Every structure is written in structure tokens, then in C-alpha cells.
Amino acid sequence: MPVPFEALIPLGLITGFFGVSGFFFQKLKTSINEGQPPRFGLDRWDRVMLDRDYRLTGTQRGQAHETAAPSAFSTNSAWNLEKEHL
Which portions of the sequence form the region Disordered (predicted)? Predict the structure, then answer.
């Protein structure tokens, strides 16, 4: 029993829209992540390094090439300090 070609038009439209939306979603995720592919399976050390890179450069994926940290980095700590009890 043949399938009328009119039944294939909606199938083609739906498949095309899924493909186009998937392509643009992938491009959006890449552009949000500074052109890098997304990272998966980050452990605590990776998250600490991401936070350090963010405090040094202002971006999550950016890395600084200077050997010494800027002077403002000494007071820009990620660790919460305990208040002194006297």
C-alpha cells in the first residue's frame, strides 16, 4: 500500500525543525562557553580551578599567562575566613 506524499511533508518539516533547533542550541551552548566545548564530570578540584581562573581573568574558561598573580588577588580569596574570637 503506497504512502501518499502529502503525509511525508509534515514528517519532513518536523525532522527539519528538530535538526535546525539542535544545531542552534549547540551553537548557543558553545558561544556561552567562550567557544569551548562543554565540560562534563567536574570534580571539586576542577571547580576550585574554575573559580580561581574566574577571579584572575574575569571569565570561567580564561587562563592568565603571568607567572605572578596581580596584587588585588591577595585580598580576593575564595575561602571564607572565620571571625577572630578573643
Answer: 59-86
Q: Please state, in angstroms and rounded to a whole number, the distance separating the CA atoms of residues 7 and 40.
A: 40
Which residues have C-beta within 8 Å of that of residue 52, sequence separation ≥ 6?
Answer: 78
Radius of gyration of the chain measured on its C-alpha atoms: 24
CA distances from 10 to 6, 17, 20 (A): 8, 10, 15
Distance, C-alpha 54 to centroid of its chain: 13
Output the pTM of the full model. 0.53
DSSP 10-75: HHHHHHHHHHHHHHHHHHHHHHHTTTSPPP-S--HHHHHHHHHHHHHHSSSS-----SS--GGGGG
How far is Cα 8 from Cα 14, in angstroms, rounded to an integer? 10
